[in-house]
């Protein structure tokens, strides 16, 4: 349990001290709201850029990265690692398989258990997209020092660890 006070994250909608309106989450002072908004914008902007430049969506890019890092992973492993739901991962891989970017190998004779790999075309697309992804990342992180990036990444990792702990807690 956190010992941070709730009023650190709340605002009265009209901004007054004695508003009859109910308090709600403050957009500007709430890191959870800020991370959510940033994630939404990051995904939307990346989706537009990658669709326009490479003809694939951000989900497909994530799977290209995933399978470059962890060839032979399953849908479940990809979902756990990326935090994306298994159905979305499965749809992306099926779409990419039709496009010739990935291939599946059945494990243990069970059609439902597959290991996924990039094809030659998938590796080529990843190599083509990586410089653009790094350029986008540099633009987003402009003005940060290496030390600040290390601290920022550490904070985000702790945030993710707390989310994992919360997911394991029954409601």
Automatic annotation (TrEMBL):
An annotated Gene Ontology molecular function: DNA-binding transcription factor activity
Gene Ontology biological process: response to stress
Superkingdom of the organism of origin: Bacteria
Gene3D superfamilies membership: Winged helix-like DNA-binding domain superfamily/Winged helix DNA-binding domain
InterPro entries, A to Z: ArsR-like_HTH, HTH_MarR-typ, MarR/SlyA-like, WH-like_DNA-bd_sf, WH_DNA-bd_sf
Domain HTH marR-type: 29-161
Stored Pfam families: MarR_2
SUPFAM superfamilies reported for this sequence: Winged helix' DNA-binding domain
PANTHER family: MARR-FAMILY TRANSCRIPTIONAL REGULATOR, TRANSCRIPTIONAL REGULATOR, MARR FAMILY
Protein name as annotated: Transcriptional regulator
Protein species of origin: Phaeobacter gallaeciensis
């Amino acid at each position: 349990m956190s010992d941070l006070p709730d009023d650190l994250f709340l605002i009265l909608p009209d901004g007054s001290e004695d508003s009859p309106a109910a308090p709600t989450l403050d957009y500007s002072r709430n890191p959870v709201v800020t991370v959510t908004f940033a994630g939404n914008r990051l995904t939307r902007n990346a989706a537009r850029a990658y669709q326009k430049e490479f003809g694939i969506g951000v989900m497909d890019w994530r799977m290209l990265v995933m399978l470059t890092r962890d060839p032979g992973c399953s849908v479940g492993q990809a979902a756990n690692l990326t935090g994306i739901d298994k159905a979305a991962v499965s749809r992306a891989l099926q779409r990419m398989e039709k496009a010739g970017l990935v291939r599946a190998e059945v494990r243990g004779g069970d059609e439902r258990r597959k290991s996924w790999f990039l094809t030659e075309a998938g590796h080529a697309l990843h190599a083509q997209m990586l410089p653009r992804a790094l350029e986008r990342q540099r633009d987003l992180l402009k003005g940060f020092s290496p030390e600040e990036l290390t601290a920022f990444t550490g904070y985000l990792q702790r945030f993710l660890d707390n989310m994992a702990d919360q997911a394991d807690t029954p409601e």
